[in-house]
Amino acid sequence: MDRRALLGMLAWPLAAQASEEWSGFSARSRATLRFFGLRVYDAQVWSAVPLSAEGWAQQPFALTLSYHRRLQGEEIAKRSLVEMRRQGPISDADAARWLAEMQAAFPDVNEGDRITGRHEPGQGARFFVNGRLQREVREPGFATRFFGIWLSPQTSEPGLREQLLR
Fold first, then answer.
1. Rounded CA gap, 79 and 66, in Å?
2. Spacing of C-alpha 18 from chain mean position
3. Interatomic CA distance for residues 112 and 60, integer angstroms
4. Which of 20, 61, 127, 155 is deepest in the core (most CB within 10 A)?
């Protein structure tokens, strides 16, 4: 077997996994989250058509966070729940279940790692870590609140939202 054929066989599973993150989508927008001037992550939206500021929750899309620093997965999950609560009340039962789902979805990350969330309207969300499916959460309410961290009018980062919805 020649070298190119062997490399193609080895690369195919990686390409198949990566394409599942963004399958059917094109890169749309990008923004950087900074905390006290330090880059935390770059966020990028992938979708078939541009996201609507009013109707993003009804559109399929993927949101990729490419990290620039080390963060603990448990802290990412806890902070996500705080941000989800900015959009309105969450029952204690939902909060506990959603926190457990996010803790299972988000490992500790290092500089260069990426987490992609794929929003599937009416179904839920799938999370990929460095191109590999990590977790699927089949709750539409969870998905809307989770992606609302960046895209809802109640986000704590309105400038980031504006850039992502371009």
1. 17
2. 14
3. 25
4. 61
